[in-house]
Structure formats: C-alpha cells, structure tokens
Design a protein that fits this description.
Strand order of the largest sheet of chain B: 1-2-3
Mean pLDDT of chain B: 90
Oligomer: heterodimer
Distance between the termini of chain A: 25 Å
Largest interface: A-B, 28 and 17 residues
Helix content of chain B: 40-55%
Number of strands of chain B: 5
Number of helices of chain A: 22
Helix content of chain A: over 70%
Largest sheet of chain A: none
Number of strands of chain A: 0
CATH class of chain B: Alpha Beta
Radius of gyration of chain B: 17 Å
Largest sheet of chain B: 3 strands, mixed
Chain lengths: 447, 154
C-alpha cells in the first residue's frame, strides 16, 4: 500500500494538497458523470491539472499509470479486431439459432448465452456490436418484438462479463491491482455467474419470452440462413481460434512464471498479427496492422490513463487512506460487513454512474483497508464483492455499462429505441435480485 | 478552373416531398449514381445515391449498422426483397437522403470537387452562399467543360 506523502508535496500557491486533489477529483467526476463532455478529454484535463498544480510530478504521474491494464485492454482489442473479420461471431450465433429450430423463445435464450460466453472471454462492446444486429434481424424475420432481445443482450453481457478477469473493465482493474489470476476470477466468480445465468435464462424464457409467438413460415425464413456462409476466412479463423486458446492458456498458466496478463495479451496480439499474414509481403502485413489498430479504442485507453493519474494524485495526498480508515470505523473492522457494504455500494454506484472511475477510485481505498481487516486473506471477499457489485450493477439502468449504451444505440439506429424507464422496470429488479444472490454467495463461500 | 465552369446546371430539380418512386425512376432512366435534391425553396437538401438505396434494400437491422461488413449467412427470397423495394418506393425522397453528402461553392477550385469525386461521391452538388443548389459536377460535366474550353482556344 502506498503511504501518503503530504509533507513532500509542493502545490501551486501553497494550497493544501488534500483539499486541492480532492477538489480536482470531485470536479472531474461531476463533469464526467454529467456526460455533457467527452469523457476522455475530461479525464486527461483532470490528470494534467494534477500535474500542473504540483500534486504529482510528471514522473510520479507516469508511475501511477497501470500499464498492465492498458496492455491487456489493447492486446484483447487487437485480437478481437482480427477475429471479428473471420465471421466467427455470426457463425456461432446462427448455428445456435438453428439448434433451437428458429423457435423465438429458444432464440432469445441461445443468443443471450452466446453473448454471455463471448462477453466472458472477449470484449463486451464488440460482442454486443456483432450479436445485437443478428438478434434484431432474427426478430425482424420472425416478426416478433425486438425489445426482449435487446434487453436480454444487455443482461447477458453484464452477467457474462462478471465471470473472468478479462470479462469487464472493473475486473481487469481489480485483477491488475490485486494480482489475482485468471483462474482466481474464474474459480471465485464463475460458479455464481453460472447460477445467475440459469436464473436469468428462466426469467427470459418465462417472462420476456412469453409474448414471442410466430408462424412456421417465419421460422422457415430464419432456418434458411446458412451458418457456414458466415465464415469469411477459414484460415484466419483457425489461426484466431488457436491464438485465443493460447492467450487464455497464457492467462491461466502465466501466473506461475510471473507473466502478467498484459504481457500475455500483447504477445497474443502480436503473434496473431504475425501468423495471419505469415509469408505475405510487409506491405500486406502493415495493412492488417493498420486495420487492427484502427479498431483499438484509443479514446478508452487514454481515458484510463487520465483516471489512473487522477486517482494516483488523490492516493498520493493520503485522502483515500483516510477514507479507508473512516470506512473501517463504520464497519468496525469487520470483513463481512465491509464486504457487504462494498458489494451494495458498488452495485448502486455502477447502476447510475460509469463503473470504471468508481472502481479505479475504490481500488486504493480497499487496498488501504487491508491491514486493518486482517491481511490479504481477510480482504479477499471485499475484492470479490467490489468486482461483483461493479459488474452486476451495470444491469441497474440503461447507462449502467458501456455495453448497455451500445445496445440502446444499435436498437435506436435500427428503429427500435429502448426507453430508459422501460429498461429500468426490468433491469433494476434483475440487478437487485442478482446482487442479493451475490450477497448470499459471498456469505456462504467466504464467511 | 473553378466549379461554376465545370458544373451542369440543374434544369428540373427533384424535391424532398416528392415520392421516393419518382427519384428511383429518374435515376433508372438516366443511369445515375446519385441525384441532388432540393426543398421547395430550392435549397440543397441532400443526395439520393444508389449506395443509400442498396443499404436500404438490406434488412433494417443490418443495413443501419455501419460496422457490419458481411452477412453471408443471410438467404432471402425475391418476395422479401420486393417487399422492401415497395417499402422504399412508398417513402418520401426526404427519407432517402444521404446525410454525409459534401458540397462545393461555385467559386471553389475544381480540385475540391475532384477530391470528393475520387472519394466515391460521383456527383458533387454546387451550392451558393444562400444554400441554393446551382448545379452539379460529375466526371462527365468536367469533360464537357474541358472540351468546350479547348474549342474556344484559337
């Protein structure tokens, strides 16, 4: 845990570093959560203000950036950018639809499960970007309401993403800070996610799916789709699947050799780019690289960078250490009370605000409580509670997660706008119920 | 050369509130890739292009998503395509406009129009300071202007 360094900080006009850094953080977060300005620009302005006002030197600011998280995100974005060109996502979706013979309720379930699976192992946004249009197309062909499909995609992407280290940005942040491995996430969160998926599937089938009725003629239209024709490049597909398997194996086994997930993902991305155009000219290889890099969300990466500096500034002045102490006082140093408080706080916050800045701020706060709670083992349930709350909380509203906003945007573009309050009517009870299940799970497993 | 010299003046404009079938028939008759459209005040409103029509011929859920490059799994009957064609024809021209259409000013350098044409906008509307559509530039209108200029040279 980083110790506060207030006495060594020389701020502009001799301002109190604690008040100054807290003010910068609060103002930046208010502007961020107002969603009136681009979040990356605001985060970078906040970060630069931390340096200009003297809270951090430039060297200290750079030291505060979690390059493991950035490398993991970038590597996975490149891998997904190349893999999506193969048609794999479309193939699996259409194949799954054939599996249930175009039955609307069955389609609702299988597409949700496909999204949950891909969200666990790949980027949520890409997953919904590719699966939602297929779901809408199938709803169009079956002549059924597309709204159950839109809602189920949101629920599935948030629940699926909870299962692994790479499934959702909060997990990536927590994994990088705690050094919990891919296996740790899968073992600790995976069983709960399976339970939640079963419960969600039942809800989708009996509630959202109950209105989905269609004729055999419409089902035949869907059955005419040819999954095999989705595959654009079989050779690239083989290479991509091999590399994704290798990367996941790297996440699992790399920890034994001290290799961080960021390194594994970047190596996987580089190897994929090497092998997918192996033997071709440097010009062709360069073109593929440019295509892949064009799909990397640079804005998101710079957003993370700004946040890391901003939170490192606050951490440097000792506020988070102080707040951690207050939280310990409130929970009387009881790990169980602390874990449950963090779980519900994270879920409530993530339902209404961006969970990335929230978790970035919570990480040093939780770190500061480690000794008071009794060490690394005692604080473990608090970390899992933070991960569960911040991921599952995303289902609480339409702005709870970036994937929600993406699904709503896709629906809007296709002429099916998803109403904010209509979503809350379903999303909020599902979120509260899933956090309640998580509460019971944390209690049974860790206490 | 500037854009005014190279443009073809528009004699019979098409209006946003006319039926989409009118512009589709017009494009089919004259083998046009795109057509500039005006409102009832003769102000430029946008372009109707075959690219946009083709996109509208796709199922809505796929056609509206710009990120999707392939949908090879999709197999549709002639009836399904006909239904969407009928749907497009029943709309107004204003519903078919390409929002990304770029324009040039009459006094602008021809190079500006050439850049747009080379960027796959095969018809470049020429719009004056008041937003009025005064003509359009295509490869063939430039050819015509160059030939006319050479014919005048002694």
């Amino acid at each position: 845990m980083n110790q506060p360094h207030q006495d060594q900080i020389s701020t502009v006009f001799g301002l109190d570093p604690v008040i100054l850094s807290a003010s910068i953080l609060v103002i930046t977060f208010i502007v961020l959560f107002s969603e009136r300005f681009n979040r990356t620009v605001i985060s970078l302005i906040g970060a630069c203000t931390v340096i200009i006002t003297g809270i951090l030197t430039q060297e200290q600011a750079i030291a505060g950036i979690d390059f493991n998280t950035l490398a993991l995100l970038t590597g996975m974005m490149v891998i997904v950018a190349v893999t999506r060109q193969t048609g794999l996502f479309e193939y699996i979706s259409i194949w799954a639809v054939h599996l249930v013979k175009g039955d609307p309720r069955g389609v609702l379930i299988v597409l949700a499960l496909v999204t949950a699976l891909f969200s666990a192992f790949l980027d949520n946004l890409t997953t919904v970007l590719l699966i939602v249009p297929i779901a809408l197309l199938i709803a169009e062909k079956l002549k059924v309401s597309p709204y159950p499909f839109l809602i189920s995609q949101i629920l599935a992407s948030n629940i699926g993403g909870t299962a692994t280290l790479i499934g959702d940005p909060p997990n990536i942040l927590i994994g990088s800070a705690t050094r919990y491995s891919f296996t740790d996430f899968l073992v600790n969160l995976g069983p709960l996610v399976l339970i939640l998926l079963v419960l969600t599937t039942l809800f989708l089938y009996f509630y959202l799916g109950s209105s989905l009725q269609t004729s055999q003629k419409n089902r035949d239209r869907v059955m005419r789709f040819r999954p095999a024709d989705s595959i654009q490049d079989p050779a690239l597909l083989k290479i991509s699947l091999t590399m994704i398997t290798a990367v996941i194996a790297g996440f699992i086994f790399g920890e034994h050799y001290g290799i961080n997930p960021g390194t594994v993902a970047m190596l996987g991305a580089a190897m994929l780019l090497l092998f997918c155009d192996f033997g071709k000219s440097a010009q062709v290889q360069g073109q593929r690289l440019r295509q892949a890099l064009a799909e990397v969300e640079w804005g998101a990466l710079f957003f993370f960078m700004g946040l890391f500096i901003l939170v490192h500034g606050v951490e440097h002045t000792g506020i988070l250490h102080m707040l951690g102490g207050k939280l310990i006082q409130l929970t009387e140093g009881n790990p169980q009370t602390t874990a449950f408080s963090v779980l519900w706080l994270a879920a409530s916050a993530s339902a209404v605000i961006d969970n990335i800045p929230f978790v970035t701020t919570m990480i040093p706060l939780v770190e500061s409580m480690e000794i008071s709670l009794g060490g690394a083992e005692a604080i473990e349930p608090v970390w899992w509670s933070l991960a569960l709350g911040s991921c599952l909380g995303g289902n609480g509203s339409l702005i709870g997660a970036a994937a929600n906003v993406m699904v709503a945007g896709l629906g809007d573009r296709a002429g099916y706008p998803l109403n904010f309050f209509d979503f809350i009517k379903i999303g909020l009870p599902i979120m509260l119920f899933s956090v309640l299940v998580a509460h019971v799970y944390v209690y049974l497993v860790y206490f | 050369m500037d854009c005014r010299i190279c443009m073809s003046p528009l004699t019979k404009p098409l209006y946003t509130d006319q039926s989409a079938g009118t512009v589709i028939d017009f494009m089919r008759k004259h083998h046009l890739e795109s057509v500039p459209i005006v409102d009832r005040h003769n102000k430029f409103a946008g372009l109707v292009s075959t690219a946009k029509l083709m996109r509208m011929l796709l199922p809505k859920s796929i056609g509206m998503m710009r990120g999707i490059k392939h949908a090879g799994y999709l197999r549709e009957s002639a009836e399904e395509l006909q239904a969407r064609m009928d749907d497009i024809r029943s709309q107004r021209i204003g519903d078919l406009l390409d929002p990304y259409a770029q324009t040039v000013h009459p006094e602008a350098s021809l190079a500006d129009a050439l850049m747009l044409i080379s960027d796959r906008q095969y018809i470049v509307p020429v719009v004056d300071d008041d937003g009025l559509l005064v003509g359009a530039i295509s490869y063939f209108s430039i050819m015509h202007a160059v030939e006319a200029a050479q014919g005048e040279t002694p």
